[in-house]
Write a structure and sequence with these properties.
Shape: globular
Strand order of the largest sheet: 6-5-14-15-16-13-17-20
Oligomer: single chain
CATH architecture of the largest domain: 3-Layer(bba) Sandwich
Largest sheet: 8 strands, mixed
CATH topology of the largest domain: FAD/NAD(P)-binding domain
Number of helices: 10
CATH class of the largest domain: Alpha Beta
CATH superfamily of the largest domain: FAD/NAD(P)-binding domain
Number of strands: 20
Order of helices and strands: EHEEHHEEEEHEEEEEHEEEEHHEEEEHHH
Length: 377
């Protein structure tokens, strides 16, 4: 018997939508809210490793993800030379198991739409353009006042509202989110036929130059540089900077640059990181996903770790013997903290080696993380 009868999930990203799906499927009444006006997701593309695909399969969305995404099982390393020479082609670990590909790239808005459609079909009530203005809890529930002055009482509130989580702040938790010293240019554009997997170029004017196919006709390309204030650049100037930086990279990058012409597809952000010390709950409010832990995308594990949070939390709640206890929520943090922290630490270590121009044991680190996440969370 579930430990909860009704739950409010704040934030309709991957962590929040996945939590809503699993709880609603388990017979829990779920309200899913997001402050954004609609379901459109920020960003361009997303890389989903096998352990993320394992959770997506559990959510019942693997078929549409496979249809709309682009699956591949290898990773290429290329040189920043005049030919973009292929140094090595590596077979990726299938961390989701032998029946799933190693990696799927896809459009982030497509993934958002698939998850939210599934949440609605499972019975979750999804509302956009709203948030809460008050949250007060006692030993038996949480009273929530929404921005439209309506109210609700819930057994549990799940804060899945991202890196700058309002729920975390409402709980009085101070968590320092720090820049790692890197900034990333991203662009979503057409996929040339020469791009059939992720290739990474290390060196040149950027720490990393890479790309990931996200569908038959699309990809996202990225360039990682030292973090800079790029906020004053107009869209056309941003495109010019990204194209200029990319000119040091060849091979498939030459084909990407030829179609990289729309300023509206380019965005720039800094790599940031934090990990909330356990426990990740205060009373009947629990934090998951980026609200609790976030890392630079050097290991492409951000979405996977958020989805794993959702799967573990839902499992514990649905097997909760009809009682929501502090011990149950403590068990959630205990199952997730060490694993998520290891992924964050590994992601930060890779970034630091690049910043320091240090030849670290990248294969060894990636193998350790792959082994870790190959086991279900």
């Amino acid at each position: 018997m579930p430990a909860v009868r009704n739950v409010l999930v704040v934030g309709a990203g991957a962590a929040g939508a996945a939590t809503a799906i699993l709880l609603a499927e388990g017979g829990v009444s779920v309200d899913l809210i997001d402050i954004k006006p609609d379901a459109r997701a920020a960003g361009s593309g997303i890389t989903l490793q096998g352990n993320a695909l394992r959770v997506l399969q559990q959510l019942g969305v693997w078929d549409p993800v496979r249809e709309h995404g682009y699956a591949f099982d290898t990773l290429g390393l290329r040189a920043p030379d005049p030919h973009g020479s292929l140094i090595v082609e590596l077979t990726d670990v299938r961390t989701g198991g032998p029946d799933l590909p190693a990696t799927v790239g896809m459009s982030r808005p497509d993934l958002t739409r698939i998850l939210l459609d599934r949440a609605a079909a499972a019975g979750a009530k999804v509302r956009f353009g709203t948030t809460y203005t008050g949250i007060h809890q006692d030993t038996t529930g949480v009273d929530v006042t929404f921005a439209d002055a309506s109210t609700g009482r819930y057994d549990l509130v799940v804060g899945a509202d991202g890196i700058r989580s309002w729920t975390r702040r409402a709980l009085g938790i101070h968590l320092e989110t720090r820049s790692t010293g890197m900034g990333i240019w991203r662009a979503f554009t057409a996929r040339p036929a020469t791009v059939t997997r992720t290739d990474l170029y290390y060196g040149g004017p950027c720490h990393i130059a890479g790309y990931c196919p996200t569908g038959e006709d699309s990809l996202y390309a990225y360039l990682v540089e030292d973090a800079q204030d790029r906020s004053t650049l107009a869209p056309q100037e941003s495109l010019t900077v990204m194209r200029r930086l990319s000119e040091a990279y060849h091979g498939p990058w030459d084909d990407i640059r030829a179609v990289l012409t729309d300023p509206a597809t380019v965005n720039y952000t800094w790599f940031e990181s934090h990990v909330l010390p356990a426990p990740w709950h205060r009373g009947r409010v629990v934090l998951i996903g980026d609200a609790a832990h976030t890392c630079p995308p050097t290991l492409a594990q951000g979405a996977a770790q958020a989805l794993e949070d959702a799967a573990v939390l839902a499992e514990l709640l649905l097997d909760g013997d009809g009682a929501l206890t502090d011990g149950l929520l403590q068990a959630f943090s205990e199952r997730r903290y060490e694993r998520a922290s290891a992924v964050v630490d590994g992601s930060l270590q890779l970034a630091q080696w690049l910043l320091d121009h240090e030849r670290g044991d990248v294969p060894g680190l990636m193998a350790r993380i792959s082994h870790l996440v190959s086991e279900p969370a």
